[in-house]
Amino acid sequence: MSTKEQRITQILADHAGREGPMLPILHDVQHEFGCVDAESEKLIAQGLNLSRADVHGVVSFYHDFHETADPRPEIQICHAEACKARGVEGLIAEAEKVAGERVKLTTVYCLGLCSAGPTARVGDRLHARLDAKTLAQVIENAR
Amino acid sequence: MIVRISDDALARALGADELAQAFAQKGHEVQRTSSWGMTWLEPLVEIDGNGFGPASTVDVDAILDGSSDLGIGRIEDHPFIAKQQRLTFVRAGKTRPLNLEDYEATGGWAGLRRARQIGAPQIVEEVTASGLRGRGGAGFPAGIKWKTVLNTAGEQKYIVCNADEGDSGTFADRMVMEGDPFALIEGMAIAGEAVGATKGYIYVRSEYPDSIRKLNDAIALSASIVAPFDCEVRVGAGAYVCGEETSLLNSLEGKRGEVRAKPPLPAIQGLFGRPTVVNNVLTLAAVPHILAEGGSAQYGALGIERSKGTMPIQLAGNIKHGGLYETAFGITLRELIYDIGGGTESGRPVKAVQVGGPLGAYIHPDEFDIKFDYEAYTAADALIGHGGITVFDDTADMAAMARFAMEFCAVESCGKCTPCRIGSVRGVEVIDRIRAGGRPADSVELQPVMHNAPKTGRLPEQEIALLTDLCETMKFGSLCALGGFTPYPVMSALKNWPEDFMPGNEGSVRKVLDRNEA
Asked: ∠ CA(B74), CA(B75), CA(B81), 5° rounding?
C-alpha cells in the first residue's frame, strides 16, 4: 500500500459515519495533496462504492478541487462587482508583473469584504483596502 | 483598561489582530468582540464606550494618552448606529462572539426556551404572524415553508442553513456567523422544534474561513443547550450556484451542485429525499427574536405592505460609509446612499447602484426614490435579493458591467439547463459585437448558395434586438435564478446607460428597446 493509498484510506475512515461524505473527503484530500488526481478519485470511488465517473464528475464541478497540484503560493483576488466598483481592475496588470512565475494569481468572485475592497486572500489570511503598493507587498510575502 | 476590538474577518483583514496585540503588550485587557458594522472605521477600538478608528498599531499610544484625533465619540450615539433598528444584529459590537455568558446576558436562548414550551404548531403560527420572509432573495414566507415541513410525515427531517453567501456586495451572513454564531444555532434549533427535525446542516462557502472556524467552536460550546438538536458545518467548494437551494442540497449529498427541477419542493423531498427546511442565515438568525415574548407582534409591526420586519442592508462598493445597516423595510435608496452612506468614497457622482448582488438590476439615480420592499422592486424589474447595495461612481462602464454579468453566469452556470449554460456564452459574444459596432458578413453568409442570408453583416441595432431576445429566453427558460435573473443587470444597464453600449448613438438603442416592448 502506497502512502497516498494509506492516507486516503484513513481520510475515508474519518468520514465513515457521515451522511453525504463526498465533499468533506474531497476537501481533506485536496488539502493533503494539493489536488484530487486520478489515483485519488479511483481510491475514493472504491471507498464510497461509486463509479470513478461519479467522483470525477464531482471533482470537476467545483472550483476548489484541482486535478494537478501547483506548488506555487496562491493569491486569490476578488473580481466581483463591489471590488470592481473600488478599482480592482486597475491593480491587475501591476500585480501580474510582481507575481511573475513565482506566485499564482487567481480570480475569485467575492470574499465578503465588499465595503473594503479591493480584497485578496492568501490561505486563511485576508487582506482588504489594497492599493498597488500593499497588494505588491502581499504578493511578495506570499510563501 | 479594557480595550474592545472586533475579531470580524474584515477587521482582521485590516490588521485588528496586530492592533489587539499592541494594546495587550501595553498591559491592557483586550476583548475581541463582534463588529459594529461601520466598516469604514475598522479596525475600530472601543474604550469605555468611545470609539477610535480606523486605527493601526502606530495610533496605540495616542489613543491611550487621549491625544488621538481618530475619536468618534460614543459609538452607540454615532448617527450610523443610532438611526438603525437592530433586531437580528442587536448584539453587533456588544458581545464576544463565542462567549456563552455574553449571549445569555443579552437575551440568548430565551426564544428557544419559550419555543420548547409552546410547541410546534404555535411556533409555526408565530413565525407566520411575524411576516418573516426568506432573506436569501426569494422572499418566500418562512412560516408557510415550516408548516409544509411540519405537516409532511417523515422519520428524519432536516434544517439546512444556506450560508453560501456568494453575492458580491453582501456580507450580512458572514457577520452573523462571525459575530453572533449562537443566534444562528438558536434559530436552527427553534426551526427544529417547529418541524420535528433533530439534525441541522450549515452549508458555508469555503471563502469564509473565519465563519467556518467560529461556527465549529460555537456548535461545540452550545451542543448541550440545543440537544437533542445537532448541528454540523459543511464547507462548500467555490461554486456560486450552490447558493441556490436545490443545488445546495445536491452538494450536501455529495453530488455535483446541479439545480433540481421543482416540484418536488425541498420542504417535501429535500435532503436525501426527506422533508427539509432550507433557510438563509438571516432568516434563521431573525427567529430567536420573533420567538421571544412578544417578539412576533413587534417584528410584524415593522416594515411596509407585505415586507414585514427589518432587513440587514449591506452598503458596499464605492461608498464613503459602508457597512451593515439594519432597518425596517420602506427606506429609500436615496436615504441609504446619500444620507447614511455619504455618497461615493471617491467623491465623484454616483452613476449606478446594483441592488441584490450579481443578479440584481443596476438602478439609475433617477429611480432612487424606490422603497425597500420586495413587491416594489419586483414591479421595477429589480430585486432586493440578499439586501446588498453596491455603489458605482461615474467612471464605471456599464456595458462592461453587463458583459461581466453574462461572463459570471457562464463561469458559474451549473450546466443543467440550456438557456443559462449556452445563453450566457452567447450573451458575452453579442455584447462584444455591440461594443465593436456590429460585425461584417461572415464567410458562410457570403457564399453564393446562401441566397437569403444578408450580405451586409449585422448592425449594432440588430445585435441589441438579439440581446433583448436572448435575455427574454434566459429569463423565462432557465431553471433557477442564476440564468433567470442574469438578464436583470444586463437589460437594466442597456436601458439606463445606452450611451455606454453605443457611444453617440444611444437614440437607436432606445428605438430598438421601444420596438421590442411594443
From this structure: 130
Q: Do B170 and A24 touch (CB under 8 A)?
A: no
What was the pLDDT predicted at A24?
98
Per-residue pLDDT at B517: 75
pLDDT score at B515: 85
Whether residues A132 and A106 fall in one domain: yes
A61:B239 CB<8 A: yes
Compute the distance between CA of residue B158 and CA of residue B421 in angstroms, rounded to an integer: 31
Q: Does domain B2-82 have CATH number 3.20.20.10?
A: no
Q: What is the pTM of this model?
A: 0.96
Q: Is residue B27's pLDDT more than 90?
A: yes
Q: Which of A23, A62, A81 sits opposite B317 (nearest CB)?
A: A81
In terms of domains, do A136 and A78 share one?
Answer: yes
pLDDT in tens, B89-121: 999 999 999 999 999 999 999 999 999 999 999
In chain A, what residues touch B55 (CB-CB under 8 Å)?
none
Q: Report the pLDDT value the prediction gives residue B305, as an integer from 0 to 100.
A: 87
Q: How far apart are CA B460 and CA B508, in angstroms?
A: 9
Residue B518 pLDDT more than 70? no
Cβ pair B169:A19 closer than 8 A = no
Residues A94 and A126 in one domain: yes
Using a CB-CB cut-off of 8 Å, the residues of chain A touching B255 are 22, 58
- Asked if A111 and A71 touch (Cβ cutoff 8 Å), the reply is no
C-alpha cell at A65: 478541487
Residues A90, A137 share a domain? yes
Residue among A142, A108, A112, A105 nearest A128 (CA)? A112
Q: Is B507 exposed, middle or buried (0-12, 13-18, 19+ CB in 10 A)?
A: exposed
- Averaged pLDDT for residues B202-215: 97
Task: Check if CATH label 2.60.120.560 holds for domain B398-517.
Answer: no
B171: contact with A, CB 8 A cutoff:
yes
When scoring B168, B216, B251 by the number of chain A Cβ atoms within 10 A, the one with the most, hence best to mutate, is B168
Half-sphere exposure of B371 (CA within 13 A, CB side): 11
**B100-301 under CATH 3.30.470.20, yes or no:** no
Taking contacts as CB-CB distances below 8 angstroms, the residues of chain A near B207 are 108, 110-112, 121
**What confidence tens digit (pLDDT) does each residue in A53-66 have?**
999 999 999 999 99
The parent domain of residue A16 ranges over 3-61
